[in-house]
């Protein structure tokens, strides 16, 4: 799709957190006031405000939603769909859709990472499929197939099919997917959002060039994880 114009990066709060932040803010304020008034304590009220303010800031931090723009040439490029750390780079037999060997790269997101997800490639969404399942710890190998997950199949601009899988973890119990079948998609656009710790798998053609290593930290929409063969 050619080179992108690099723009100023901004940070905002994700719309998925609007109600959570509103209600949790009210709840935290009420709890802090009740604890201070109901218990005979000489602790200054400002200390309660600071402590509960830290709790609220932790919740706010979880819903960070940076606006990012990939500044390079996107042709045959696969970017990280999420912030996190690389936990899997391996060849797997993908029997659900491809029925052949695929290169799987997995990114684990801790509760402290940004939890917005980006499209890994420019292309067109072929289909979106949600499957209920278990809630194993997201970094375990069996999580990819057994946990609740949402599959987004993308036909990249070079004609190759790329599967992006959002996976719920032991804490994450809600996967939000914005991708719609038959819609064009682009790097820099949000694919979805996963609440709390979770994982995203990307299934690539077996001959793709891997550009990351195990344990490497990734930045969604910025880190190039692989290059597709033309």
Quaternary state of the chains? single chain
Distance between the termini: 13 Å
Strand order of the largest sheet: 11-7-8-9-13-5-4-15
Please mark out the parts with pLDDT under 50 across 5 or more consecutive residues, or reply none.
1-8
Q: Which structural class is indicated by helix and strand composition?
A: alpha+beta
Count of beta strands:
16
Q: Secondary-structure element order, as H and E? A: EHHEEEEEEHEEEEEEEEE
β-strand percent reads 35-45%
Question: Percent of residues in helical segments?
Answer: 10-25%
Average predicted local confidence, pLDDT: 81
Instruction: Tell me about the largest β-sheet.
Output: 8 strands, antiparallel
Number of helices, counting only DSSP H or I runs of 4 residues or more: 3
Shape field: elongated
Q: What is the radius of gyration?
A: 20 Å
Give a brief rundown of this model.
The protein is built from three helices and 16 strands. It has 230 residues and is α+β, with helices and mostly antiparallel strands.
